[in-house]
């Protein structure tokens, strides 16, 4: 049970980003921020107002310091903590209504068990004319951690979303 919950927390952070506030439409002023939420197997991880290096559709990175505590407000339920280990880069294809993430490197911890996972090449589909994006299915692979950690964890399509504002 704990192993599954920890993997879920790591996956939740890997999926990153979601809509906590209403999505910004094209043409509106953006403040170079992103909110995140994901629910996987009953566990939820969220944050608000992480800084980005630019506004979509320009290529950008998300600053992990604005997600991870103490500077950010990342919180997961179920007694799990999570940490983003990199500053994910996003590219946008407005004509194709998609975004891509190069790499997400995360660590989840519950009690004394720690699991680190990486996911690459994640594709997100834009929701209409907003800056909300919903994930396509992807798998994060374990790169280190306890033998109790699953070798990989998968997020189903629509299991996460991100909102740039």
State the separation between the terminal residues, measured CA to CA.
36 Å
Compute the number of helices. Answer: 1
Which parts are unreliable, with pLDDT below 50 for 5 consecutive residues or more? 16-25
Number of strands: 12
Helicity level? under 10%
- Strand proportion, as a percent range, falls in over 45%
Radius of gyration: 15 Å
Give structural notes.
- With 165 residues, the chain is mostly beta strands.
- 8% of the residues lie in helices and 47% in strands.
- It contains one helix and twelve strands; from the N terminus they run H-E-E-E-E-E-E-E-E-E-E-E-E.
- Strands 1, 2, 3, 4, 5, 6, 7, 8, 9, 10, 11 and 12 form a twelve-stranded antiparallel β-sheet that branches.
- A hairpin with a 5-residue loop joins strand 8 and strand 9.
- The protein is globular, with a radius of gyration of 15 Å.
- The chain starts with a helix and ends with a strand.
Quick tags:
165 residues, mainly beta, 47% strand
Brief sketch in words of this structure:
This protein has 165 residues and is mostly beta strands.
List the SSEs and their pairings.
Blueprint: H1 2-15, E1 33-40, E2 43-51, E3 60-61, E4 75-76, E5 81-84, E6 89-93, E7 98-110, E8 113-126, E9 132-135, E10 138-145, E11 152-155, E12 160-164
Antiparallel strand pairs: 1-2, 1-12, 2-4, 3-6, 5-7, 6-7, 7-8, 8-9, 8-10, 9-12, 10-11
């Amino acid at each position: 049970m704990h192993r599954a919950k920890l993997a879920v927390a790591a996956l939740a952070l890997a999926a990153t980003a979601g809509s906590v506030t209403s999505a910004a439409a094209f043409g509106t002023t953006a403040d170079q921020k992103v909110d995140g939420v994901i629910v996987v197997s009953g566990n939820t991880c969220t944050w608000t107002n992480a800084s980005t290096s630019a506004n979509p559709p320009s290529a950008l990175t998300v600053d992990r310091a604005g997600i991870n505590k103490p500077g950010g407000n990342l919180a997961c339920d179920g007694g799990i903590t999570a940490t983003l280990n990199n500053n994910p880069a996003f590219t946008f294809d407005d004509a194709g209504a998609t975004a891509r993430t190069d790499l997400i490197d995360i660590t989840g911890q519950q009690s004394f068990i720690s699991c680190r996972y990486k996911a690459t090449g994640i594709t997100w589909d834009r929701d209409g004319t907003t800056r909300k994006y919903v994930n396509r299915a992807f798998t994060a692979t374990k790169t280190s951690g306890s033998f109790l950690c699953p070798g990989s964890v998968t997020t189903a399509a629509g299991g996460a979303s991100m909102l740039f504002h």
